[in-house]
Specification:
This protein is mainly α. It has 4 helices and no strands.
Length: 92
């Protein structure tokens, strides 16, 4: 009843549609990878900027060290150079 020519009718169109769908899925996947890479790059740039702007400058570090030394000298002068074990016992 059906000859071979009639059975092949439409198969080429179906194969073409499947190929187009697979190609579209591949392109969508590649776009997703690119968007993820772009987002990661932006996050890295943002983190690096925050790290640079929040890093203490050498001037602040030196000023903090000088303040710590002066406070240490003040505490030693006030306690009369009492050993730390006795100070800790007073705190309890």
């Amino acid at each position: 009843m059906f000859n071979k020519k009639n059975r092949q009718h439409g198969v080429t169109l179906l194969e073409s549609l499947i190929a187009i769908v697979l190609a579209a899925l591949g392109v969508i996947g590649m776009i997703g990878i690119q968007l993820r890479t772009l987002a990661d790059t932006q996050n890295t740039v943002r983190r690096e900027h925050l790290r640079r702007t929040r890093a203490p400058s050498a001037h602040l570090v030196a000023e903090t060290a000088a303040l710590a030394r002066s406070e240490s000298k003040r505490v030693k002068a006030e306690t009369g150079d009492i050993p730390i074990r006795r100070i800790a016992a007073w705190a309890w």
